[in-house]
Amino acid sequence: MVTTDPQAGPAAARPGSPGLLGQLVRFGLIGGFCALLDFGSYSALLALGMSGVPWVDVARAISFVIGTTTAFFLNRRFTFAAGQRGGAGQVGGFALLYTVTFFVAVGVNRAMLALLSAASSSGWETTIAWAVSQATATTINFVMLKWVVFREPRP
């Protein structure tokens, strides 16, 4: 059979998984870029006046959507080889995963802001709360993307 579709070639022609270490490195680099995008948009929204309740939560939600949507597409392309073979199941898995981590990120951010604001007023509360919420969501995302959403078929 002759085809002009580059995706229709034999499975051997598709790029393989870079392995767990390679995936962690790529995920980390992409995550770092997307975290800067997330935090930059969060900071910009706060600077535009969204620093009071409930607007701080809206700002965190918007920044989360910007960062994680970018991360999904970059990780799908560069980190997880199985991402290039997905379909509706991956989109559904992505939607479910990011819905859960959305609420985790916003909830952890809110809890950390309350906890840190009660403990001190150093001016770093917003940054620390964002970092903790981001680290929590990132950990959940890697585990679920690798072993659920972009799960590679067994050989």
UniProtKB/TrEMBL annotation:
It is a multi-pass membrane protein. It is found in: Membrane. InterPro entries: GtrA_CellWall_Glycosyl (IPR051401), GtrA_DPMS_TM (IPR007267). It comes from the Bacteria. The keyword Ubl conjugation does not apply. Keywords: Membrane, Transmembrane, Transmembrane helix. GO terms for cellular component: plasma membrane. GO terms for biological process: polysaccharide biosynthetic process. PANTHER family: ARABINOGALACTAN BIOSYNTHESIS RECRUITING PROTEIN RV3789, PROPHAGE BACTOPRENOL-LINKED GLUCOSE TRANSLOCASE HOMOLOG. Residues 26-150 form the GtrA/DPMS transmembrane domain. The keyword ATP-binding does not apply. The chain crosses the membrane at residues 24-46, 58-75, 87-108, 128-149. This is Putative flippase GtrA (Transmembrane translocase of bactoprenol-linked glucose). It comes from Amycolatopsis arida. Belongs to the GtrA family. Pfam families: GtrA_DPMS_TM.
